[in-house]
Amino acid sequence: MIGPSRHDILGIGFGPSNLALAIALEEAGRPLRALFLERQERFAWHGDMLLPGTDMQIAFVKDLATLRDPTSRFSFLNYLHAKGRLTAFLNLRTFNPSRVEFNDYLAWAAERLADRVSYGETVEAVEPMVRDGRISAFQVVSRLGDAGRRVRSARHLVVATGGRPHVPAPFAFIGDRRLLHASRYLGGIDAALGGVTAPRIAVIGGGQSAAEIAVDAGERFPQARVDLVIRGHALRPSDDSAFANEIFDPETVDLVHGLDRQRRADLLGQFRNTNYAVVDADLIARFHAILYDERVRSVRRHRLVRDTETMAAAALGDAIVLRLRDRLGGTVEEARYDAVVLATGYDRSGLPDLLEPLRPHLLTGELDRSYRLRLRAADATVHVQGWSEATHGLADTLLSLVAVRAGEIAAAIAAFEAAAERPPARAVGA
Known about the structure:
By secondary structure, the protein is an alpha/beta fold. It has helices spanning 16-28, 76-83, 86-90, 99-111, 185-193, 208-220, 250-257, 261-270, 281-296, 389-392, 402-420, and strands at 2-12, 34-38, 117-119, 121-131, 134-144, 149-159, 164-165, 179-181, 200-204, 225-229, 302-305, 308-316, 319-326, 332-337, 339-342, 346-347, 362-367, 373-375, 381-384. α1 (16-28) packs across α11 and α6 (208-220) packs across α9 (281-296).
């Protein structure tokens, strides 16, 4: 075991949220020493969903820095300038870059802060360090491949680990390569199919990722038969109209956080069709055109299996067998597939699993306005990014406000340090 080493700030995860924080800390010019721990070997953002032809669903100005500081050198526009593509991008006449390009932008920004992150480290434990009845810091234990464990401590933790892939109950007990969550689609679909030349593929879910995968699977495997299984009667378009999009504005976070629990839930419920179980209108049109073209040619490679829920699933012989119930007619049928892809979203209920050891020290499970856990008797802080939709609004799990949120967290940590009048830590090793 290597360590211990001390830091002012330890970030767990180095996706867009903590990357935005690293940028905010860098541009604030504060002397706080921060290190970010990332389990991936290199920067990648939803690498298994970087499908050809897919675009971002947010404007490029909602990047890592612009809404916090439009003059930042980490803006998407500066990335385009550095890559020599600024005027070419403008000629596209779009606010929405491709997903592949936005991932390249994020990796470009991460490379400029490579000295602040340790890749290939999986955090295994977080423990409070208690002195005289108060939490003085946190100990973080991580594993660095075959190099063993490392121990670090910090007064401030910022956890941005992403949600847990949601696996519906009928699938929870299948440990089979032929069943995979959308978060592993590109990296896992070939192994799931095992070389079957004319595979039967089921995609479970009615949202953007499900529709994207259904289209991609049909193109990627020209002899495949693809069923998109949805609980509703139709794919529903996302509401991206001007007034609806105000739910993602920075000012809305203040509004939502200031409401009581029931009023928050009521407000957010009105806007669920901006993000959940909805599909971009252009993609709906594309999938409908595929189905229509197959009708014209008397070919059946794609199906939209409507009003259907999965009652049970089992791995039987050469197939995954789904027991499907028609929610309108009540009939039940069994269908066999060579692979099943769960485009069923993510779970962000409660706290990230790593923070469970802190539960005895919590005043409440909710985060305060600056995304900080409410701890009793603490001279240290924990901020959590991407786990507070119920208290901070629908933008919390998306990219829309990562720049603004990062600035707020950086400012909150600086204010905490100033109130304590402590010098920054001298790190011993990385």
